[in-house]
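Troubleshooting: if your tokenizer reports a length mismatch, compare your output against this known-good record of 191 residues.
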Amino acid sequence: MHLCFVPITPDNKLSAKTILGNQKSLSEWQTAYHERMSSRWNQLERGQSSMETKRKHVPTWLYKLGGRLDKQYGEIVSALSDINAFNAGKKRDKALELVAAWLPEVEKFSKEIGRQQAYIDSLKEQIGQEADYAGRMRDEKYEQELKVQKANQRIFELQRTNEQMGRLLSKIPPEVLEELQRTGRNKSRER
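Known-good structure output:
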């Protein structure tokens, strides 16, 4: 069961922070709400607080970065496929620009994927420590297993994108990559 309400202060301002406070206060509100509702409907169950479980979610910025990199990947592929004998110079410069902006983001993305994979591995280890599978299905571990599956699916998608990006990088001639690296070093020296 979910409760939805609009936190309006006495001076008619919308402010969840004023009404609910911080994360601890929100958890206390949720517990008090459950106690009140379960006194009448005793079959209601209270979920576990994220403060107790210490669960993490894939950060929004990482999810958005993956989407942005996918879009940039498409632009790079399009720019590379549009290069022909008549427009090689102009299109090549555009492709170099796109790749130069894309490479640092891909590196950042790959590092964060590694961190997320470590978290998923720790969740798998927690789940693996439970001996009774049927018992797990009835308690918190079942929820964790579902989260691991969802996170694994997202990691798989991100890894597939990363592999696509790697294949694209391998198609870029070495001299173009060297030129990008020289350009990058020159820009860092200018700063």
